[in-house]
Amino acid sequence: MPDTVDALILDLLEWIGPAPRPYPEVMEAWRTSCPRLPVWEEANERGYLEQRFEPGRGTNVAVSARGREHLRTARKLPLQFRVDDLAGEPTRALITRHLAGMHANSPPESVHAFDIDQLRAPDVTFWSVWVGEELAGCGALKRLDARRGELKSMRVTDAFLGRGVGRALLEHLIAEARTRRMESLWLETGSAAAFTPALRLYESAGFVRCGPFDGYTDDPFSVFMTRAI
């Protein structure tokens, strides 16, 4: 339980981000997503949060200096990003687990995650993320056209959840898209509660919700997002 709470505290600090957020928004999001875990209470107890009252705006929540320092030190890992041909068993097993997780939380017709063959397509580049010889995560970038790319197969291994791998991977994919002269990124993810951490990560990185794109259709089990880069 303590490891879970510590990981969620880091997620909370990242989600709040550099600018204060309204207190009701923070409380609704975190009480809804983890009502049985003392994430909010522990973050306050450790001095990682500040509440600021602004006349006419109400109470906002911000990450304190202590919280920012904790985030910097806790998230630092010696990550290596490798273009991966998915020939190795660790990455193949991670994709298998990723697909199983998608099917466990969405009906089959609403699962758009790529399998291994799709990730090997000419218009897709797949990266694995390593700490030493231990697989920490993976992600892919699909070129939609000359100016747009789509994020696919973002996954962090269980051993590295809550340690900043997802954010580092997202930043890596954004940087790669820029080097390829893409101007915007797009993604589809699920709407079930299991996808809440991913949605928070994308929102904190500047992604906003949008309508279906590139062959997708409206689906209550899908959330579509985009951002200019």
Task: Describe the 3D structure.
- It is a single chain.
- This protein is of the alpha+beta class and 229 residues long.
- The chain folds into two domains: 73 residues, Winged helix-like DNA-binding domain superfamily/Winged helix DNA-binding domain (Arc Repressor Mutant, subunit A), CATH 1.10.10.10; 150 residues, 3-Layer(aba) Sandwich (Aminopeptidase).
- The chain is 38% helix and 28% strand.
- The chain has eight helices and ten strands.
- It has a seven-stranded mixed beta sheet with strand order 4-5-6-7-8-10-9, with helices on both faces. The chain has a three-stranded antiparallel beta sheet with strand order 1-3-2.
- A hairpin with a 3-residue loop joins strand 2 and strand 3.
- The longest helix is centred in the middle third of the chain and has 17 residues.
- It is globular, with a radius of gyration of 18 Å.
- The model has no long low-confidence stretch (mean pLDDT 89).
